[in-house]
Amino acid sequence: MVQLLWLRNDLRLHDHEGFRLASGHGAPLAVIFILPQQWLTNDDAGMNRLGSAKSHYLRSALIDLHRQLEDQTIDLHIFSGDPLQIFKDIQAEFTGTDLRLLTAEAQAPEESDWISGIRDLGMPVTTYSAQTLFTEKQIQTLGSSYPSPFTRFRNTVEGDPGLWQVKTPVDTPPLGVHEQPLRLQSPVSWPQSAYQVKLPVSGGERGAQLWWSDYLKSDAINHYKTTRNQLMGKYSSSHLSAALAWGCLSVRQIWHDILQYEAAKGASEHTYWLRFELLWREYFHWSLRHHGKQLFQPNGLASHAPESRPDPARWQAWCNATTGVPMVDAGLRELRHTGHISNRLRQNMASYFIHQLKLDWRLGARWFEMYLADADVASNYGNWAYIAGCGHDPRPQRQFNLNRQLRQYDPHAEHIHYWCPELSGENATNIIRHQTGEQILPLYPAPVVPAPDGD
Ligand SMILES: Cc1cc2nc3c(=O)[nH]c(=O)nc-3n(C[C@H](O)[C@H](O)[C@H](O)COP(=O)(O)OP(=O)(O)OC[C@H]3O[C@@H](n4cnc5c(N)ncnc54)[C@H](O)[C@@H]3O)c2cc1C
């Protein structure tokens, strides 16, 4: 018997059910990561799924995991290609040997298809929970209260002590299994970086653990609710998203660390609010599992798709960060260079893309998916659909007034000055006038579509 542990969005050793199961079984183990070929292939809009910062983050996470496994004399085998074909090749390599595949539960339909394809090859597959706070069984206990609007989901969860406490993270014992070498070769060619990348938090399990313990030690969590909407700032929000998206940190561990912090230093609206945001993530994850491919349709989870029409000029302006709306262009530049933008800016950019540029919301979601280091299919498409008014939100659409948002969240245009230094001599008032269509910044492109002012 040979055990194959296929890691996808669970690139860590702590709180890892897969490693625990493998170790408990004792048969030789091969640990695998596959870079799916389709992530590297450009789609009809010229986008792939591995932009510079995202690719940088993923590589750092894999390097860190590789080193940690090496300490336990286990190799991390990294392949590139079609996952199903790679498992077929492994099966051929081990003809006559029983194989057992361990892998995390599928989050997205694409992963479900891979896992059922592998089962169809006749390979026994055991799945484990790695990405969410709650287990499938726990979610089933919610019965008719799920799926439902977020507030009902949250109220139900908060009213259920069994759920609200969240399962305790499991200890991953030292592996104590022999490595199973693989002869299979499938060299990985990582995309070349087109931009100089500057991640806000370094990639990988150990970097993320250091960052998280620094965040708690600094007590920045005690101002989380007040500062989380800021557009910049090291401690303005938790910066956990990329580590959670790739599973370098376990969300259950984070939850328990917050509870421990509350027990030691006192609970506050801020510590609660960080868990509240983690519940949004949880909600989108279970929503995607429930609705599956429907979320990727033009009408998302609603009966009607929002109004949109293809417009190559507007699309090109977005891709080149030359929409002429400095708040949006600054966000687009930041995204390409760091793989991160604040939640507030994501909301404003998505709103402009959907409600002003009137482009298909799914195109915007794919753009974010390519560049965000924290790209998480459930949270990304869930949030885009929500702003497009075809997600879970009962309101028909959520349009943001970019000018009012700029006055509130970047009153001195610091974020814009940082990412668009050519505007460093301009104050927020002039920038807003330009965004609304008064062409008062002669050296800056005019808005492809002005950001309307008013209510
Ligand atoms: C259009 C759009 C696209 C988005 N795409 C993604 C994505 O691909 N991946 C992703 O992780 N988040 C996404 N978000 C949610 C949110 O913007 C990021 O999680 C957050 O900005 C990450 O920074 P942080 O870790 O400092 O967040 P914090 O404010 O510190 O929040 C803590 C954690 O809670 C979760 N969280 C917070 N807000 C949300 C939210 N609105 N939806 C889901 N989870 C949330 C994240 O895991 C985050 O790390 C998107 C939001 C919008 C509006």
Please, could you describe this protein's structure?
By secondary structure, the protein is an alpha/beta fold. It folds into 3 domains: 1-130, Rossmann fold, CATH 3.40.50; 131-168 and 204-291, Serine Threonine Protein Phosphatase 5, Tetratricopeptide repeat (Alpha Horseshoe), CATH 1.25.40.80; 312-435, Orthogonal Bundle (DNA Cyclobutane Dipyrimidine Photolyase, subunit A, domain 3), CATH 1.10.579. It is 47% helix and 7% strand. The protein has 21 helices and 5 strands. The protein has helices spanning 17-25, 37-40, 52-70, 83-93, 109-120, 136-140, 150-158, 161-164, 205-217, 224-227, 241-245, 251-265, 269-291, 312-319, 326-338, 343-356, 361-371, 377-388, 402-409, 414-419, 428-435, and strands spanning 2-7, 29-36, 76-81, 99-104, 125-128. A 5-stranded parallel beta sheet has the order 3-2-1-4-5, sandwiched between helices. α12 runs antiparallel to α13 (269-291). The radius of gyration is 23 Å and the shape is globular. It starts with a strand and ends in a 20-residue tail after the last helix. The mean pLDDT is 94. Residues 228, 237-241, 244-245, 274, 277-278, 280-281, 284, 342-343, 346-347, 350, 368, 372, 374-376, 379-380, 383-384 line the site of flavin-adenine dinucleotide (FAD).
Query: What are the low-pLDDT stretches, counting only 5+ consecutive residues below 50?
Result: none
Distinct helical segment count: 21
Architecture per CATH nomenclature, i.e. the level-2 architecture of the largest domain? 3-Layer(aba) Sandwich
Helix content: 40-55%
Number of individual domains: 3
- Provide the CATH superfamily of the largest domain: HUPs
